[in-house]
Specification:
Length: 577
């Protein structure tokens, strides 16, 4: 019988036992650094290297199965990633005056989203596991055996990640922010393929490339150490070819221009109103908000021709059908002039039993209006799930969300007339510009522009607004329609159908976003005009037609492989028994 290890021995042994967990956490932190506020996007190509080492080269603790061990490591990576990248959720606490509102949202959402990483970790540690022992099994005597093995593992893990990214953007209304492809926001040549595979499809591209790069490093080290000679690396060549192919595909897409266009003269107003002022009961503050919107709007439309002026989400502190709101808009803003005003506004049914978050389009007077009611409501933002069943949710945020919004169901675009022609307006409210499966339902023939009215003021001057903007940019590439974003506190701006904030004619010097030129801050009060040249016959992309076909297909491949592996293992164990 041996004596139990002393405390000193356990401490000395801690690095050996804990390195897999530390490596998993390090991977999560590297991935978080790819997104605002850090924005070191190129780390996305190496973020998973510590995680692969932990999943494939560490032994599970005594009594642990490999899939369970992989699930724990994946969960740690996911938790460290989301706790870091979503820390802005804590800003809700300061706005609503309740510590628990922000803290519980931050911890709860991060822990839930980390489950998807856990599922991936379990898959990668078992079905997607790679072994560098190239002269054993099917690879023995095969010059390209090791490379083919790496490609198989890259395919499986890329498929699993891609499918899980799509899944987390769908389940429980979905939160698909900060997928791997979004980290490539500054590499427009590379991401133009999103019009075919969607931005979730780039989860496969990046994961497969990560696997190949990690395996290449390991194989080169072993070859130099053990063999003193190098073997062919077909897998590395295939990975490079994949990236080059995507870049070559992107070149003509970035450089091409529409054959025929129609001009839209638009202007965004961003008043940068703190949430405490926006919903204040002080009549002077509320009056000041109205006066500011009126004065800025009238100043611009009276000095230059405008087709469309945009206000952000819930711009006015009142419902659209309220008499004083109608009077303010008719007598002080619209005044019968020849421009369209598009504003985020709240409204209700006649009985007041249902309340909607809307985008409302007006011209000349409120009698000439078109209204779109928000479809994709935000849980714990616009409604409390299971409000009556789980009182704890009511206790945490009930003082903020006193009533639930009602979702709309129309996917018909709004419409404006410009120079005798019609332009379709794709209305996206709040986070809806980050939900590609919704945006694609509005696609029609003829010139169209997406419009997002949002209010990120709930999260103050945090990284949330930049993350929101980065995730929204990819709707332009997926659907080949430009996007105008009118935000209360930023980021407001114009994004073209290439996903670029830079106008073609001005080059990379003048980004079309509202920001302070000295500090670069987007949390300012300002206005921004632009003349958009809309394609009169924009393409109907593969993504617009078929949505997330690529991610779903690869997810099914991964799921089918996992089921086949489970069945085969069960049959083998029965035979052995």
């Amino acid at each position: 019988m041996t004596d139990p290890p002393t405390t000193g021995a356990r401490l000395r042994d801690f690095p050996r036992r804990a390195w897999p967990q530390v490596a998993a956490i390090a991977s999560g932190l590297l991935l978080a650094a790819c997104f605002p506020p850090f924005s070191w996007g190129d780390l996305v190509w190496i973020w998973s290297i510590p995680l692969w080492a932990a999943l494939w080269f560490s032994a599970p603790p005594s009594g642990w199965s490999r899939w369970r061990w992989g699930g724990l490591l994946g969960f740690l990576a996911g938790l460290s990633f989301f706790l870091t990248s979503l820390i802005w959720l804590n800003e809700i606490s300061g706005v609503v005056g309740s510590f628990w509102s922000g803290f519980v949202s931050w911890i709860g959402l991060s822990a839930y989203l980390a489950i998807y990483f856990a599922v991936f970790g379990a898959f990668a540690a078992t079905v997607g596991r790679w072994s560098p022992r190239g002269d054993e099994g099917p690879a023995k005597g095969n010059l390209f055996g090791q490379s083919l093995g790496v490609l198989r593992v890259a395919l499986l893990n890329g498929a699993a990640w891609c499918g899980l990214e799509w899944l987390r953007g769908v389940i429980l209304t979905g939160f698909g922010w900060n997928g791997l492809g979004v980290a490539l926001r500054d590499h427009l040549l590379l991401v133009q393929g999103a019009e075919i595979i969607g931005i979730t499809g780039y989860g496969f591209v990046v994961t497969a490339a990560n696997v190949i790069l990690f395996a290449t490093f390991v194989r080169l080290g072993r070859e130099v150490q053990d063999r003193k000679r190098l073997r062919p690396h077909l897998d590395f060549a295939a990975g490079v070819a994949m990236i080059i192919g995507l870049i070559l595909y992107g070149f003509p897409k970035v450089l091409s221009e529409p054959a025929q266009t129609v001009e839209l003269r638009a202007r965004i107003l961003q008043l940068n109103i703190p949430m405490e002022d926006k919903w204040s009961d002080d009549p002077d503050l509320r009056r000041q908000i109205l006066d500011d919107y009126r004065d800025l709007t009238r100043t611009f439309v009276e000095t230059a021709p405008h087709d469309l002026v945009l206000w952000p989400e819930t711009a006015l502190p009142g419902l659209f059908h309220f008499p004083w709101v109608q009077e303010f808009l008719n007598e002080q803003v619209l005044k019968g002039d020849d421009f369209y005003l598009l504003s985020g506004l709240e409204d209700s049914n006649l009985e007041g039993s249902e309340i909607y978050n809307t985008i409302t389009l007006m011209r000349g007077s409120t009698a000439n209006y078109q209204m779109h009611k928000k479809i994709h409501l935000v849980p714990f933002g616009e409604f409390i799930p299971l409000r009556e069943v789980l009182p704890v949710f009511e206790w945490i945020v009930g003082n903020v969300i006193e009533f639930d919004f009602t979702a709309g169901d129309s996917t018909e675009p709004l419409e404006i007339e410009v120079k005798g022609g019609k332009i379709g307006i794709i209305p996206l409210i709040c986070f809806e510009d980050t939900v590609p499966r919704l945006a694609r339902k509005f696609i029609r023939s003829g010139p169209q522009v997406m419009v997002n009215a949002t209010n990120d003021g709930w999260f103050r001057e945090s990284a949330e607004s930049a993350q929101h903007f980065d995730n929204a940019r990819f709707r332009c590439i997926e659907l080949r329609r430009p996007l105008i974003r009118a935000a209360n506190t930023g980021v407001s701006g114009f994004i073209d159908e290439r996903g670029s904030v830079y106008p073609r004619e001005a080059g990379p010097t003048y980004p079309r976003i509202i920001r302070d030129e000295q500090s670069g801050s987007t949390f300012i009060r300002g206005s921004l005009p632009a003349t958009l040249k809309l394609d009169t016959n924009p393409p109907l992309t593969i993504y617009a037609r078929y949505g997330d076909w690529f991610a779903v297909s690869l997810g099914l491949v991964a799921l089918g492989t996992a089921l086949w592996r489970a069945i085969a293992t069960s049959v083998r164990r029965r035979r052995e028994a």
